[in-house]
Amino acid sequence: MTTDDQPFPRSARRERITDPERIRALAHPVRIALLDHLGDVAEATATECAEALGESAASCSFHLRMLEKYGYIERAERRGREKPWRVKVADFDMRPDPEVPGSLLAVQAVASMGLESEFLRAMDWFARIDRENDEWVQATTFTRSSFWATAEELAQLSRDVQEITDRFAGRHTDPSKRPPGARYSRFFAVVNPEPEDEK
Fold it and tell me: Which portions of the chain have biased composition (kind: Basic and acidic residues) (predicted)?
């Protein structure tokens, strides 16, 4: 999960999260959607989040408080009587720690939810692609690769993939950095080894 709302590379502000309780706090579709929305708009109130997500304001308020409790978001500057929220951790790397019991199961739960969400989003795009201008159709890619690599090489590739969109940093909060004709776009990738054959 990442947002590009800062003018410097994500790698410089990425936070590694291994605490199982903090990871499990994201294992809820509304919380994932809230975090994504706040990354997209920079800040929003519970009511604004509810309108964007099609959820009740009460539900959004509850889940926003949970995200605050676990350090993902914080209160932004008040707007009159409104109390907006904003992302606190701009980019994070949830990775299990063998020294932290339960961290692997927590990552599995969040990863499964994230994979399903991104799969449905991508399926929705391809279902509507026949209504798009050819320029945007040609700009889209679905790519797969298979190769042999060591754990160290795969880890480096994972880091490279995490940083591949750094060139677009700052465009969320500063529209002047968006070239004419730019559209909000998504990037999703998984880097993993094939499971070893069980003997």
Answer: 167-177
Condensed to tens digits (0 to 9), the pLDDT of residues 136-174 reads 999 999 999 999 999 999 999 998 998 898 898 888 778
User: Would you call 191 helix, strand, or coil by DSSP?
Assistant: coil
Q: How far is CA 31 from CA 3, 64, 131, 139, in A?
A: 15, 7, 31, 30
The answer to whether residue 119 is domain-embedded is no
- Strand 73-75: give its sheet, edge to edge: 43-44, 85-87, 73-75
Please check whether residue 122 lies inside any domain of the structure: no
Q: What is the rounded CA–CA span in Å between residue 165 and residue 65?
A: 30
pTM for the model: 0.72
Task: 138-144: list long-range contacts, CB under 8 Å, 24+ apart.
Answer: none
29-41 and 46-53 helices cross at what angle (nearest 10)?
110
Give the DSSP H/E element, type plus range, for residue 92: strand 91-94
Other C-beta atoms lying within 10 Å of the C-beta of residue 81: 6
CA separation for the pair 84, 190 (Å, rounded): 33
CA–CA–CA angle 145, 147, 153 (5° rounding): 110
- For 151, the domain range is 10-111+132-177
Question: Is 197 contained in some domain?
Answer: no
